[in-house]
Amino acid sequence: MSAVIFPPNVLSPAQRRARFWVRGLRTLVSCVAIAAMLSGLNDTSFWINLVHSTCIGTCCWLAIDLGRIPLARWQHRNALPGTPEALTQWPGWPLMLVAVVAGTVLGFSIGNELARWITGVASPGFYRGSLRQGAALLIGALIPGVVITYFFYSREKIAGVEAAAQTAQRQAAEHQLKLLESQLEPHMLFNTLANLRVLIGLDPPRAQLMLDQLIAFLRATLNASRASQHPLSAEFARLADYLALMKIRMGERLQAEFDLPAELAATPLPPLLLQPLVENCIKHGLEPKVAGGRIHVSAAREGADLVLRVRDTGIGLSGVSSDGTRFGLVQVRERLATLYGSNASLTLQDAGDAHDTEGGTLAVVRLPFASLPSPTTPSASDPCMPPH
User: Fold this and answer.
1) Based on the domain organization, do 146 and 223 belong to the same domain?
2) CA 306 to CA 355: how far, in whole Å?
3) Containing domain of residue 354, as a range?
4) Per residue in 109-134, pLDDT tens?
5) Distance CA 296, CA 298 (A)
6) Are residues 145 and 89 in the same domain?
7) DSSP assignment of 98-130, as one string?
8) From residue 267, how far is each of 49, 238, 296, 331 by CA, in Å?
9) 161 and 220 co-located in one domain
């Protein structure tokens, strides 16, 4: 079933229902204020004024608010399906004034009779008293009706503009993210193909093994890139596939370790977020080091944050050349900013201390933790889990 997409300046059914009840609540608040004002001016019973004001005001609101919908459909009956004109529930001011007048007369009459039935006190109405009294009541009821209608219309118009702005910002962010992802995937692919080209001349059997691994990796990565997010276990599995590719070329110079707690395996994550960080570990950390080294990827929950660490035991930041585009780091930071704003961060620092002399570089990604209702624990045979 295809989803219904509403134009930016048209509210969805859920938004319409919410704003409908908000208008009703504001109408009730106005009725209470009117009852208090009448009691103070005329020294009459607040209870009686409250019942009359609430019954009349609520009935007028319902008659006007619901009456505009068929008028809007009739006004835009020739509009093309799916267009803002066809989906809007605003008939325009000429027909809206008709709805206000008709809704006021109908709502006032019904509400007045309802209040009389509840309190036993009869108040003047359109059908009781002289013509002058009826005209005065109509004018007195129309003035607040028009004022309140204009207030609600202005609020809805402002809300529509804000919704359109938010939709435009979200679409721009999504388009930017898609652009970043489209740049990221060829970046990894070109690096791998360049490595494969070198290996073909040096060791054809290993090149064939690397090509088979690349095909499997691309198939899994293509499936992941079609989604806006995937489980953290799938992210680790893609990294394991990529490092298996690199291990064919680097041999024992490359060792990989993964630390993914079972309770975090189902946590959603943007696909390929850690890929450029692992690439940097190999390109700038381990490849320049004759002995190679180890890459350790871990995940942990720290308070309200999900913390992802990618650490290598390579030459460290001090040995990295300042030349280059820093493409991978820019990609990760821009994706985090697009998705999470200032709530996410990427930091890069030298790894190791007095108790850890392996050195290298540590990349730390922090992003808001998305709690799941009931995360499942993957089994040892789960294909999404990376090898330990």
Assistant:
1) no
2) 26
3) 203-368
4) 888 889 889 988 877 666 655 556 66
5) 7
6) yes
7) HHHHHHHHHHHHHHHHHHHHHHS----BTTBS-
8) 57, 15, 19, 21
9) no
The number of domains in the chain is: 2
Separation between Cα atoms, residue 103 and residue 335, nearest integer Å? 52
CATH number at residue 299: 3.30.565.10
Same domain, 144 and 234: no
Residues 66 and 120 reside in one and the same domain? yes
Q: Which CB contacts under 8 angstroms, 24+ apart, belong to 194-203?
A: 195/246, 195/249, 198/249, 199/248, 199/249
Is 285 within 8 Å of 312 (Cβ atoms)?
yes
Nearest to 188 by CA among 256, 248, 267, 241: 241
Q: Are 310 and 281 in contact (CB under 8 A)?
A: yes
Rg (alpha carbons) of the chain, rounded to whole number: 33
Most confident of 125-129, 339-343, 384-388: 339-343
Under DSSP, the state recorded for 226 is: T
374 within some domain: no
